[in-house]
Amino acid sequence: MSVIAKYLTSVRALQFLQLFRFVALLLIGIVLSKTSIGISQIGTYETFLLISGASCFFWTGGMLQTILSKKREQQSEKSEAYFNILLVFTALSVITALGVFLLQSQIAYLVGFSGGRIPYFKILLAYIVLSCPANLVEYIYLIENKPCRIAIYGATVFTLQILAVTIPVVITNDLGYGLYGLLFVTAIKFAWLAIIVLKFSRIKISWKYIGMFFKLSAPFILSVLIVKGIQYVDSFLVAYKFDESTYAQFRYGAKEFPLILLPAIALSEAMSARIASNSSTPEILENIKQESKRMMNVCIPLAMVVIITSKYLYPLVFNSDFYESALIFNVYCFAAMFRFIVPESILVGKRQSRPILAAASINILVNVVLGLVLMKFIGIAGIAVAFLLGNIIEKVTLVSVVKSLYGIRLSEYIDTRIFAYYLILMAISFVISILI
Predict the structure, then answer these.
(1) Which letter does DSSP use for residue 410 in this model?
(2) In Å, what is the CA distance from 67 to each residue of 61, 130, 349?
(3) If you average pLDDT over every residue of the chain, what do you get?
(4) Is the terminal CB of the chain with fewer CB neighbours within 10 Å at N or C?
(5) Contact present, 152 and 8 (Cβ < 8 Å)
């Protein structure tokens, strides 16, 4: 156990959890595609996740970034911090669910459901209330430096999620029972959260802390709304312009390669927390550089193979209805390369949200305008291409800001030679995938 604990750093534990989350979603998608519920019902499932995610991603993401940026202070205030954060998340989750309830007909129209009604609506509302606070679990473990518990939590809940969603659908061919299974696992996550809050926090309401937390979270919430909102904008564009079957094809393809995306996100979040704790910045930058280099050497060759073979893998892994998803996936996979460049982790750690907001605003503008134009010529693939170009522009902007504010060059936190080498190989792989 001591050997595992020595190897399993917070970064690696978060990478493990993110990877397990993706594997769970992937396996659920594969199983659903092999049942007889049909691609239209799969589209309904993806839309269920879209609505629940879009309704609360901005405030959950912004507040989670606030938690990371305040890591050092929380370790001295944690006697009541976690309990009050739980209260905030729970209250906002209830308010979010109420908003979705009141706007049901408008949301149904936006995502293409007829009759002004959202299928499985009661399950959706309960899922929103429970799932948003549940995101706190791994972040509390991260702040408390409990990497083994992060890994155990991830393995447990996502294994349960795979079983709870797929087994009922396989047995009954009814998506509703699978969604009840998803809700059951989400309730377990919420209970897990309540237990660790009781363990690490004193039960005391602090209106002063809550007010301060809202004040600090506001710029991060606005930033996340724009930074991550573009992914939901893309999905809503497809859901509004096309039918449920086409939307399912887009969602099954619009996935950045997990072996790049998830480790890179975990690395960025963990390093943001370290920078916020006033650790040695040069040492952290070197850690980012070495860790990203190690990840590129492992992940990029695998990504190249997947890109080249995706048009054959998609019909095999899912079914022939998802052949068109392969091109979408390849574009998103190429875009994932730029996740290894993490200037935002420096800015989040130093509580500089405005540059992130400005860069994200440029991204969303490029993404929406180009997406609408390209969609007329190359269909849903146009949205994927716009996503790629918008992300490149955003990264270039953030790299320039970090250099201007702190004098930190790109080469200090990523091996630019290795990155350029793999970027060229990824581009070649993409061209090959089109030609073969």
Answers:
(1) G
(2) 10, 19, 10
(3) 86
(4) N
(5) no
